[in-house]
Structures are given as structure tokens and as C-alpha cells.
Amino acid sequence: MAHIIVVGNEKGGSGKSTISMHVATALARMGHRVGGLDLDVRQRSFGRYVENRAAFRAQAGIDLPMPLMAMPAEGPDPLTPALQQLERDCDFILLDCPGSHTRLSQMAHAVADTLITPLNDSFVDFDLLARMSPEGEVLGPSIYAEMVWGARQMRAQAGGGAIDWLVLRNRLGTQQMHNKRKVGGALTELSRRIGFRVAPGFSERVIFRELFPRGLTLLDLKDVGTEAMSMSHIAARQELRDLITELHLPGVAVSF
Question: What is the pTM of this model?
């Protein structure tokens, strides 16, 4: 069966679609068969990213690896038929969830083998995971963490294995070091209480916004004629390598 990776967070602007596209492309470039589902039926950022890639590939005549995309089905169970369609041809299936609570997103979390939650490094985003006192004490899980707990229970009742949950400290800037330490400490404390791993994601870089219109990722730059990599590009590529390594995906040896 395909290994299902879900990228989820009930807040927009955390970098889910960028993470989804880079993880999917990295796996495809390493020779794995990758499928994708964009569950944000309104914004479709991940789906449009892939469509941009297909258009650029056709225009430029470059053979860029792409995930095999499917659409949620109609009816009471829109997810299972799409997953069954992709499982016939894929080693990994990546589901990009909307930045809000929907039934489709809840169903996706319940089938996740690996859950990636990008989180902007602020207490505004942290509030989705945990409630905090004015003094900074972690009081308990909040709305998104409670939804993940419910998904874990649904998965256990269906006879599935455990969900490996990775929270990414994403879009890190270079300022506000004191705030970073406080957020980091709160995440570490919470991770022990509700069972997730913490890892660094992608720093805030202009390159990510520049890549989207052509559907490109950091791994495609040499293919499109970018021979001289800047220090920022090299650092961003290392962040992606570290992320793929940290995911601990079955049968994946990082080779880019």
C-alpha cells in the first residue's frame, strides 16, 4: 500500500502548499512514484502549483518529474475512491489540506501515515496547538491538536497504525530571537504531552514566491539553466534535504 503523507494545519499562510510541492518533487526525483490530492477545493494552491509546472514543462520542453494528481470524488466519501485510484500506481500519496476545518480535511488526517504540520514561528499560530496562560504556561491542547487526537482515535478504531506527526517551525526569520526561544520551548514541552516531533522547516525566502508561477522547486533550478546557485539557494536546498531526512519515510534514502 502507498504511504500517505498529509500536510495539514487549520490556519492559512503557513506554507503548506510549498512544503507539499517540494516533498512531492523530491520524492519523485529520487525515483519514487508520487501521487497528489489537493483537498482545498476553493483555493487549490497545490493543484495550481502542479498545473503551472505542467504548463511550463510543455512550453520549455523539459522533462520535469511530477506527481500524479487526482481529484476528490463526489458523494458521502470523497476521499477513498481518489486514494484507491492513486494507490494502484504510487509509492507515496501526498494530501494538501485547506487552512480551515473541513470534513474532507478531518478524513485525510485519519488516513495519514505521516502528518506534517507547518507552523509559523509565532504564538498566534501556536494557539492552534495549545492554549497558553498570560504567563506563557502551556495549559492544554487547542482545536487543531484535539482534531489530530480525534483522527488518531478514528485510525486506531479502523485498525491502522500510529500517525507519525511532525510539526515544522516554518518561515523562520532572522529577527526576534527571544520570541523564537519562547516558541521553541513551548513546542518542546507540548510535544512530550501530545506526541509529535519538532523540526525546522523552510526559512522565509523570496525564491519560494518566485518559483510558483512556473511550478518549479529548488531541485529544478539547474534543469532550467540556473548554473550559479546563490548562498540562499544552497541553504534552502539543505533545508529541504534536512526535512526529507527528518520525515523518516520508508524506503527513502536522500540522494539530492
Answer: 0.93
